[in-house]
Amino acid sequence: MARAAVPRRLGTRLRWQVATLVERRAENEGASTLVLDVPDWPGHLAGQHVDVRLTAEDGYSAQRSYSLASAPDARHVEITVQRVGDGEVSAYLVDGLAVGDPMELRGPVGGWFVWSAGQADRVLLLGGGSGVVPLMAMIRARRAAADPTPFRLLHSVRSPADRYYLPELRRGDPGLTTEFLYTRTSPDGRSRPPGRIRQEDITGFAWPPETSPMCYVCGPTGFVETAADLLTGLGHDPDHIRTERFGPSGG
Question: Which positions fall inside the FAD-binding FR-type domain (predicted)?
């Protein structure tokens, strides 16, 4: 069933809806994609997020925000959740929620960190850890729209075991280039020593600033601030850099 984003349907976006888990896919040891059936889903744009609310039998409830991983026209709504230490919500979503279980969801939310077909001539995606989730929604949206815009994804992770969506990214798409940075452990044969993102990582992978790529940066606050500073320092137009960051929220 095709869904179109309808930004003005605020009533639906702000109302809590019941979603049912229909499938769970492990992305790595600490993260899973939850495939949800949401009967009254109003549609979304690639890059938006949703609020998730869990309520216990005694009435205690907890709420968190998660980026949408699915393309706007996908049959089901997908979010990818990373288990956060002793986080009460993320741990339940990754390890406890079973197929057929309900949960509450509200959204989509956000209108700045989004991508639509034909929006830019080139798109550079920089993701740190689970910050790759909304970027993957953009890649899937591009594929679904058969949009020819060149995409480049630079994904920073601690180790090879922490990569997300690896089979799908390995299959690739025409016009999509993917590269990984490793901050703690690199695969054998990599000449780049493990470490956080550096200027040479961007100059060796990204288009030059004079080509005016649209840059999307998402991840932990430290990663986003560093990557955005590197981009502006290299001469990229700040108006072409969109950022989304996340920090400790109790998981």
Answer: 14-115
